[in-house]
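Researcher: Good morning. I'm working through a list of sequences from a screen, and I'd like to move beyond sequence-only analysis. For each chain I'm collecting a predicted structure so we can compare shapes side by side. This is the next one on the list. No need for commentary yet; just the structure.
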Amino acid sequence: MLALLHTSAVHVPVFDALRDAAHPGLELRHHVDAGLLERARGEGPDAVAGAVATLLRRAVADGARAVLCTCSTIGGVAETAGAAVGVGVPVLRVDRPMAAAAVAVGPRVLVLAALESTLAPTAALVEEEARRAGRPVVVRTRLVGGAWQRFEAGDTDGYLRRVTEAADSVTGADVIVLAQASMAPARDATTVRVPVLASPGPGLSAAAAACVGHPDPPVRPGAGDRTAG
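Model: Good morning. Structure tokens for this chain:
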């Protein structure tokens, strides 16, 4: 079983659909806590490290063989917390495979995000993957103005339209990174002539692979499915 840590419930059907299309038979268990993102935006990602560690322990106690954090703002915190508390299963951030793919495309990487709190963690991740691959990289970031307000208002079409317009206006880049999982549908609408990368598909594939061959952790008696943490 793969546990997913979300900060918005909108990601649940997205990852269920990806699982059905590419990883049939993989059991997903969703943990949603919007408060983590709110606190991380206000106080910084490190402020939620303790809460994230608690959620990771809960996921493992419920039988997770791996945990995937789908929030780019706190993904690094989840990775670090998983190692620090020794949960015993892989803890992955959804955007790491995307960052590695971006570095492989070319040195000029443009990161688009609808949330300012996502820009720095994503840029740092791309630079980390560049160092790991031994490749030069120049990372630029751009906030998609007004997009997040539309997302919060439930205007998904307006949100994605702003993301698409921002991507199509990019120049001087070899590859565009859509920093948040919620931005992924905009990729198919873009007309820009460089690759536009999104995180959900590659991230889920990496997490599914991490589950394979990993022994089942002990299940706490009485543990059940939780869709909110």
